Structure formats: structure tokens, C-alpha cells
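Regression test case RT-17, inverse folding.

Input:
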């Protein structure tokens, strides 16, 4: 059976699911998107993802031609058409078809599409043993340019950092901001643990407000694990007792080496492992 893709209100075969070469999403990265998970047939943290999508769209003056509830139903409809109870969901809104110039006002109408597919995570081993990362020489979006809070279709900055990581022989890179403070990874948020306290950079350090990040902060509060949003320097990474990254696709991944320095014992930390378990329980509970 061919995979079905939802485009502008209609389900189509993957082979027929195409956008125009004049779409400004393709020509200029003019658009926004969400990466979402479906667990046990339910859209995980649907409201938070849809809120971020509409906020991102508003920020770039893009009007989404569907209501959040309609998009939520469309995600479920697409997953159902593909017989998926667990999958990754890519929801994309482009500026739509226009002329070759930048002017978004010449684009007739935004295009919305939803792809549901199997999820590609890090290898199982990484979740058990942790992973090595580097800090990138590419900084996260400057606040005077496009806000890192907008989940836009232009990921070149992150892609360059990802290439730098691959060149260094590691799967992921941590990006600093224009002040040299820690921001986030190429497509994941970052946490450290120091003296039993879970810390993650603040929104104003230039990060995407990760949905998984928020779930982890809430879980810490529920479990009475001290936590907070704090500006961190590269040095804080080097002296951390534990480190992990969070994201919709990756979930919670322990980091055990940063720029050649072992993190803590070199094994995934106690609090990290506790939060991985709590996150898995939360997924099961929220699918009920
Ligand atoms: N930062 C960036 C730059 C991202 O693209 C993402 C999403 N993959 C995240 C952080 C993590 O956000 P979420 O937990 O909502 O997936």
C-alpha cells in the first residue's frame, strides 16, 4: 500500500504528493513546520505543537488557512489512512506558489501538508551508553535576525553545525549564541545537571521552546527534582555532572562526552536515567 500524504485538505499517494517549484517554501525557506509524534494512536502534546506552529506563522506574517482543531483531525486522519498508531508527523505550512521575487504578497495562498512516516531515532545503544557531542563554531540564530523561537523552514544554520559534528566524528553539535552562551543542539534542546539541579538555557538565550523541554521541566517539578532555566556557558558544559538533550524525534538522549571531555562518570547519569523513565511513563499515561 502506498503511503498517503495530506495536502491542502486531501489525502494523496506519496508519489503524487508534490509541491510547485514556484512555492516560496522551496525557493526561500518561507514557511513554518512542526515535528510531532503519535504514540499509541494519540497526537503527543498536540496543543503545544499547534500553538507553536500558529505562533511561528504569526511571527512571519503567514496566515494558516486551517484552524488548529482541523489540523489536529487532519493529522489523525493521515495516520489512520497509513495504519500508524506510532509514527513521526511532519506538518508543514509554506507561503505557497508565487513569482521568482521575494515578495510574499504575490503568493496566492499558503500550502499545508502532513506527512506521517516511521521515525528515525538514534541507535538504541546511544540511549543506554550516551553520546559524544561537540560545540559548534556556528552560532544559533542571532536575536537581531530571525528569532530562534520561530520553527521556520530554513535550517541551514543547524545543517552546517550538523556537518561540523559529522566531520568531528560525532552525531550532534551544541550551538552557542552570539554572546558565547549555550543555546541548543541542531534540532534538540539541551540540559545539564549540576549538584543535583537540572538546568537548561532560558528562552532569551536564543532557543526554540521545545515541547519535550517543557515536558521535562514539568516532570522535574512533579518528581521534586530541582530544576531551572539558566544562562549557561561552555564551561558549565565541561564541568556538568550529567548532560542530556531532548526533542520530539530523539526524546531524551544522554550526552557523555563534550569536546573530548568526559561528562561526570562517562555513563548516563542517575537523574538523566530517572527522567528517561519518567518520560516513557508520561508517554504511556498521556496516550490513555
Ligand atoms: N531545537 C530545535 C532547533 C528544533 O528544531 C527542535 C525540534 N526538533 C527542538 C529544539 C526540540 O523541540 P521539540 O521538543 O518540540 O521537538
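Golden output:
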Amino acid at each position: 500500500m502506498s503511503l498517503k500524504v495530506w495536502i491542502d485538505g486531501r489525502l494523496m499517494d506519496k508519489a503524487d504528493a508534490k509541491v510547485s517549484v514556484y512555492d516560496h517554501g522551496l525557493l526561500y525557506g518561507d514557511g513554518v513546520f512542526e515535528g510531532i509524534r503519535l504514540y499509541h494512536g494519540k497526537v503527543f502534546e498536540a496543543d503545544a505543537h499547534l500553538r507553536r506552529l500558529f505562533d511561528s506563522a504569526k511571527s512571519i506574517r503567514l496566515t494558516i488557512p486551517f484552524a488548529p482543531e482541523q489540523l489536529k483531525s487532519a493529522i489523525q486522519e493521515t495516520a489512520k489512512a497509513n495504519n500508524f498508531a506510532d509514527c513521526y508527523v511532519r506538518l508543514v505550512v509554506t507561503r505557497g506558489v508565487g513569482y521568482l521575487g521575494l515578495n510574499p504578497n504575490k503568493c496566492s495562498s499558503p500550502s499545508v501538508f502532513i506527512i506521517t512516516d516511521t521515525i528515525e531515532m538514534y541507535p538504541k545503544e546511544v540511549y543506554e551508553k550516551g553520546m559524544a557531542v561537540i560545540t559548534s563554531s556556528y552560532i544559533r540564530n542571532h536575536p537581531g535576525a530571525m528569532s530562534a523561537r520561530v520553527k521556520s523552514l530554513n535550517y541551514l544554520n543547524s545543517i552546517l553545525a550538523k556537518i561540523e559534528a559529522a566531520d568531528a566524528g560525532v552525531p550532534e553539535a551544541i550551538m552557542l549564541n552570539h554572546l558565547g552562551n549555550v543555546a541548543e543542539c541542531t534540532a534538540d534542546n539541551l540540559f545539564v545537571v549540576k549538584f543535583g539541579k537540572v538546568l537548561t538555557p532560558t528562552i532569551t538565550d536564543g532557543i526554540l521552546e521545545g515541547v519535550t523541554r517543557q515536558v521535562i521541566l514539568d516532570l522535574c517539578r512533579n518528581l521534586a527534582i530541582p530544576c531551572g532555566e539558566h544562562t549557561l556557558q561552555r564551561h558549565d558544559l565541561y564541568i556538568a555532572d550529567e548532560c542530556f538533550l531532548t526533542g520530539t524525534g530523539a526524546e531524551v538522549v544522554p550526552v557523555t562526552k563534550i569536546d573530548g571531555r568526559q561528562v561526570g562518570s562517562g555513563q548516563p547519569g542517575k537523574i538523566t536515567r530517572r527522567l528517561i523513565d519518567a518520560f516513557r511513563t508520561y508517554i504511556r499515561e498521556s496516550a490513555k
